[in-house]
Amino acid sequence: VTANKTLSKAARRAKIPHRSGLAGRYYHLLTCTQLIWMSRAKSGLHEAYFNLLLLVRSLKLAEPTFDELKTHMVDWAGFHPSANPTPGQRQVILHPFSRGHGREWPIQRYAELAHLLVKQNIRPVIGGTQADAQLFAPEQSQFPVECQLVFGQDTLEGYIQRIAHSNALVASGTGPLHIASIMGQ
Length: 185
Description:
Layout: H1 5-13, E1 20-22, H2 28-31, E2 34-36, H3 40-43, H4 47-59, H5 66-77, E3 91-95, H6 107-119, E4 123-126, H7 130-136, E5 148-149, H8 156-164, E6 168-171, H9 175-182
Parallel strand pairs: 1-2, 3-4, 3-6, 4-5
C-alpha cells in the first residue's frame, strides 16, 4: 500500500506477475506491471479509503463510495456506536501513545484535557497497550483520579467495542483513531 522503492524492486526480482504502483513514483515505471494514476497527497481522502481505492483500481473492480465503505466496515465488524449515550455514561478515550506510528501530543496536554473533561462530567478513559502503561506510570500523577485506566486490559475486539461505545477518542495517527473514524466516532 505504501510506495517503497526497495519493495518494488524486490517484487520485480521475485517475478511477481501483478505489481501495481502509483504512477507518480518514477521507480514504479521500471518495477510495476500496472501504473495507477492517483495522488495520496492531493486526494484529500481518508487513508483507509485511499488504500481501498488503490486496491480496487488495481483489480479493476467497481469503486465504493466512502459512505458505502464506512457502512460495510461497521456492519462487517458488528460494532455500532451508542446512539444516545446518557449523560452519566459520557466518556472520551484518550490514547496518548503511538509507539512511533504517529505524531504524539505531549502527555501534559492529555492531562490538561482530562481535567477539562472531568469538569464537564465526562469520564476520561486512558488506554493503550500494556507497554504504554509503563510509559504512562511516571506521568499518572498529572491526571485526575476520575480517569479510568484500561492499558492492556482489552483484546483488540474489546478495545474496538470500547471505542464504539465511547463519545469520542483522542489519539495520534494510530489504529484506534482509524477505527473511531470509520465508525463515525
